[in-house]
Amino acid sequence: MTPPLLSAAGLSRSFGAYRAVAHADIALNAGRITGLVGPNGAGKTTLLLMLAGLLAPDSGQLFAGGTVADPVALRSRTGWMPDVFGTWESLTPREILIAFGRLHGADKATADTRALELLNQVHLVEFTDHPASGLSRGQKQRLGLARALVNRPQILLLDEPASGMDPRSRIELRAQLRAIAAEGATVLVSSHILGELEEMVDDVVFMTGGFTHVPSTTPSRPRWRIRLIGQPADQAVVVELQDDAAAAAYLAQLVAQQTPIAEFTRITSGLEQAYLDLDADRT
Ligand SMILES: Nc1ncnc2c1ncn2[C@@H]1O[C@H](COP(=O)(O)OP(=O)(O)OP(=O)(O)O)[C@@H](O)[C@H]1O
Predict the structure, then answer these.
(1) Structural domains for the chain
(2) Cα 112 from chain centroid (whole Å)
């Protein structure tokens, strides 16, 4: 079996006395998009920074392709997109991307060509030579994605990439990540938008209180709550159905049977339900 492009075993990291990541195991395989899901403060960003080779773990080990990862080599193969793009705002998107290309060893002409290619890809060409401070939050996110892709990374780590993006940009982001994975890279994306993540990812890793948890199966079936007229809310029935079309057919069948329905509600996506189940286990 091909070893994961990047994996971590027993990573931990504290800030002073506070243990942000207690024990994190994760395996990121070529061609796969993995979702990293967890509540605020769970340790997701800290884990992503360690996986990117940007923050040293206190203990645990990182492996790239099955052998112990060298942080410098890891950084050269990794693209990192932080949740907030806040640096170098007086520079233009072209200058920022060229600078990052040069940091990755490209000559000026190659870095310039790559910068323009990426600005095209994330639809920011019209802002190529304007200061980045004038970009909106969503545009800055798109520039952050371009910056993460400068070195054509095999390992792409994204922290809340869709926050601030408009619906079209989100759809494009999904397609771009899928295309990047299809070329053999691995993508790890943290997000709180579970419905959206569910459409994007192949695998999910949950994180709570500094610990990672891999669900035994990735739940994919959403659930609906059905309550009959006069039925107390706590006695409503919950059914799992494949998708909205299956729900519509099920509802039509109930109506044809003259079932006295008071409520028929999609309650959560499968991923949301798994998350709530995990949270319930922990409280
Ligand atoms: N540099 C730091 N110094 C001190 N504490 C930190 C530092 N970075 C993170 N922490 C703390 O570690 C914990 C985990 O933070 P982290 O940013 O990894 O969580 P997260 O899961 O990404 O949260 P969110 O979903 O809110 O972005 C938090 O309690 C945070 O305050």
Answers:
(1) 6-213 (3.40.50.300), 223-282 (no CATH)
(2) 28
Cα distance between residue 132 and residue 82, in whole Å: 16
Spacing, Cα 219 to ligand 1 middle (Å): 27
User: With contact defined as beta carbons under 8 Å apart, do 115 and 94 qualify?
Assistant: yes
Q: Please give the sequence-ordered ranges of beta strands (E in DSSP) within the chain, or none if there are none.
A: 6-15, 18-28, 33-37, 59-64, 67-68, 78-81, 155-159, 186-190, 203-208, 211-213, 223-228, 237-240, 261-268
Question: pLDDT tens digits for 218-277?
Answer: 555 677 889 999 988 778 888 888 888 899 999 999 999 999 999 998 876 667 767 777
Tell me if 167 sits within 8 A of 196, measured CB to CB: no
132 in contact with ligand 1, CB cutoff 6 A:
no
Question: End-to-end CA distance of the chain, in Å?
Answer: 38
Which protein residue has the closest C-alpha to ligand 1 atom 26? 40
The reported pLDDT for the residue numbered 130 is 93
Q: For ligand 1, is residue 270 a contact (CB within 6 Å)?
A: no
- Token pair of 59, please? 């203990």
Give the ipTM: 0.96
The pTM of the whole model exceeds 0.95:
no
| pLDDT tens, residue by residue, 164-188 | 888 888 888 898 999 999 999 999 9
